[in-house]
Amino acid sequence: MLGFKKVGEIPGRMAFFTATGANHHDLAVMSVGADAPTPPPNAVGLYHVAIRLPSDEHVRKAYHALVEAGARIEGSSDHGVSHSLYLRDPDGIELELYADVPGWQETGGEVSTIRPWDPR
Which residue in 12, 59, 63, 74 has the fewest CB atoms around it within 10 Å? Predict the structure, then answer.
């Protein structure tokens, strides 16, 4: 899953993933059931998770794999310092897959820049 390695699970309930193996897990995903209520718009809670991938090529590969799997891509952006792809998980939480632009530290690029970027 996006470069994460599954390291454990509670069958039918939770799965645990690591990015590098340095931690017992970096991400835990829990099933709450199909009848769990969806939070209302603008509710307090988790809105956005960003996952850094090694390069633009990895973001592009993720884009193609997600489109092929039927995921709805919400958008993509060039932030000057990174290139990002956006989608939502089944609970409506925004997921950002991004890669830093090589050399961004030397350019002094603005972090808040938003320009179009085509991941295809």
Answer: 12
Structural domain harbouring 79: 46-120
One domain for residues 65 and 113: yes
Q: Give the global pTM.
A: 0.70
24 confidence band (pLDDT: 50, 70, 90) = confident
| Residues 68-111: tens digit of each pLDDT | 999 999 999 998 888 999 998 877 788 999 998 887 766 665 66
Strand partners, 6: 17
Same-domain status, 13 and 70: no
Q: Give the DSSP per-residue string, the chain.
A: -TT-EEEEEETTTEEEEESSSSSS-SEEEE---TTSPPPPTT-SS--EEEEE-SSHHHHHHHHHHHHHTT--EEEEEE-SSEEEEEEE-TTS-EEEEEEEPTTHHHHT--TT--B-----
Q: Does any domain span residue 38?
A: no
